[in-house]
Amino acid sequence: MDRPCRVDTKHAFVFLAFAVLRTMVTTSGELLPTGEVAKLLGVSRQQGVNLCERGDLPFVMVGKHRRVERSAVEALRRPKPRLTAINSSYRP
Q1: 33: closest CA among 6, 60, 1?
Q2: Which contacts qualify for 82-90: CB closer than 8 Å, 24 or more apart?
């Protein structure tokens, strides 16, 4: 006689987490590991982690791993407008 399939709670949670993560990726953009983030930014992997921990790059934890949206990395790569000093002798 076949025994009914018993669902392990831990495996069910992992399956659900991956389903949610897959939904996040398709709705909000591609999630990248810190190694890929580092390659795109031209820095070390540890520097990519530091950017996350300092708050310069928003991230989510997937298990024990950080994931960063590609759009956040691209925004960090874009040049920021710089303020220029106004010549003190200039008078309109």
Answers
A1: 60
A2: none
CA distances for 85 relative to 18, 25, 89, 90, angstroms: 50, 42, 12, 11
The length of the chain in residues reads: 92
**Cα angle for residues 17, 56, 24 (degrees, 5° grid):** 25
What's the pLDDT tens digit per position in 14-26?
Answer: 667 666 665 555 4
21-77: CATH topology is: Molybdopterin biosynthesis moea protein, domain 2 (3.90.105)
Tell me the pLDDT tens digit for each residue of 49-88.
999 999 999 999 999 999 999 999 999 888 777 777 665 6
